[in-house]
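hiii so um. not sure if this is the right channel but i have a protein structure encoded as tokens and i wanna go backwards to a sequence. like what aa goes where. can anyone help
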């Protein structure tokens, strides 16, 4: 078993963490006696060996950002011999509009209870990625088949935009309960022109259908609450209790249709997908990241 205190320093991240503030940070006041969290740096072990990177690198030129790719095949891309002890496999499950890989990290016990964690779906809500990266360094409970995706929206994360590179809100684009929301200057929740017409959405839906996660958690910002969902709401209620957040539905100014949690709860019989809303960027501390990671590893065993 890997000790948490030793593994974080050796982790090398495949994707850069976005630390710029979200344009609409309205969360409550920061946790007292805590400091903002920064991403871990490249580390060298006592023998002088520098850790290798986790994520694979695409060698193809990015496609035209104005068009959408439809490829959603999942392929194993990294030898387990190059990974930290906690990660047993990485898989590129699809690519973004601009050709960035969408990578799923596999941890835990293959064949155990499938669990999916997604740090970022809205690119200007980046802090959930700190939690998923933290979890990738931690010992996973027995019999949990864990998949971790730091960001399902790498183009939006790179540009610090809610939407993907086509201007589509991926959390209004899934094929279940989709409703057309037009694009406009005062609306950042454009649904796309058809259900799941974006490559990132197609990758997510295909992967969920494949692994059938019993528990799925999506991190958002900055409503500072847990929105319970799925067949076993006691899981999300316990999460909220551990991290000290209230439970309430997350408001959607343009209507909560075509959302990722709705899709997962429809696609997985008996599954429990729910949303965790962090506070604003400046209020997410290292202690908060640690607490959310610990809470996650507790509730996924329920």
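sure thing!! here u go:
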């Amino acid at each position: 078993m890997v000790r948490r205190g030793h593994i974080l320093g050796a982790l090398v991240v495949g994707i850069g963490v976005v630390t710029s503030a979200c344009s609409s940070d309205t969360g409550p006041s920061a946790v007292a006696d805590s400091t903002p969290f920064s991403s871990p740096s490249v580390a060298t072990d006592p023998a002088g060996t520098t850790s290798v990177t986790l994520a694979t690198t695409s060698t193809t030129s990015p496609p035209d950002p104005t068009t959408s790719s439809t490829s959603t095949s999942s392929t194993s891309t990294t030898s387990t011999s190059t990974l930290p002890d906690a990660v047993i496999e990485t898989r590129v499950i699809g690519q973004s509009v601009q050709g960035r890989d969408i990578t799923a990290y596999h941890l835990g016990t293959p064949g155990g209870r499938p669990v999916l964690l997604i740090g970022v779906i809205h690119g200007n809500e980046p802090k959930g990625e700190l939690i998923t990266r933290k979890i990738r360094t931690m010992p996973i409970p027995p019999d949990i088949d864990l998949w971790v995706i730091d960001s399902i929206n790498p183009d939006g994360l790179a540009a610090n935009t809610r939407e993907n590179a086509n201007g589509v809100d991926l959390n209004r684009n899934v094929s279940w309960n989709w409703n057309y929301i037009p694009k406009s200057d005062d609306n950042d929740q454009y649904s796309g022109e058809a259900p799941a017409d974006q490559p990132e959405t197609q990758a997510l839906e295909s992967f969920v259908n494949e692994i059938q996660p019993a528990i799925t958690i999506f991190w958002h910002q900055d409503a500072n609450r847990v929105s319970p969902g799925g067949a076993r709401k006691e899981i999300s209620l316990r999460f909220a209790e551990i991290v000290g957040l209230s439970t309430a539905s997350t408001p959607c100014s343009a209507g909560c249709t075509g959302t990722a949690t709705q899709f997962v709860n429809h696609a997985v019989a008996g599954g429990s997908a729910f949303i965790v809303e962090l506070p604003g960027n400046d209020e997410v501390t290292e202690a908060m990241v640690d607490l959310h990671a610990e809470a996650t590893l507790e509730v996924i065993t329920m």
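oh and The two ends are 21 Å apart (CA to CA).
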